[in-house]
Amino acid sequence: MSTWLWPLLLVVVSNVLYNIASKSVPPQCSPYITLVATYSTATILSLICYFVFDWQKNVLSSLHTLNWTAFALGISMVGLEAGYIFMYRLGAKISIASLLSNILLAVILFLVGWLFFKERLNAVQIAGIIICIVGSIMLIIGGDR
Fold first, then answer.
1. Pick from 87, 95, 82, 105: nearest CA to 144
2. How far apart are CA 118 and CA 138, in angstroms?
C-alpha cells in the first residue's frame, strides 16, 4: 500500500475540495460556464505539470501516443462535474451525495472488474460490499431526517 499512499491522499484531498467547490457554485452561474473555467484552469495546471515533471519528453511524440481513453476521460469528467453540480443544486447534502455515488460506483466497478478484468474478491470484501449496499439503502430511506 505504501507505493500508492500518496496518490490515495491526493485523490481524497482533491475530492474534498471538488465536492466543496461543486456544492458552492453560485446558483445564478451556468454550470457549463463553470466547467469552461474549470477546464481552462485544469489545462493550464496540466501544462505546468507537464513542463515541470515531464519536460524531457517531446510534446509531439506524447500527443501521438494519445488514444480514445483521453477523450473518454474528457467526456466522463464533464458528466461527473455537471452531475455533481446539478445534484447539489437540487438539494443533495454534501455529506450524503458523494458517499452514495461512490458506493454505487464501487459496486458497479466490482462488477466491471469481475466481468471484464477477471478480478476476484474474497468473502470479507464481498461482505463489505453488501454492508455498503445496505448502508446506502439506509441513507436513502433516512432521507432528510
1. 95
2. 31
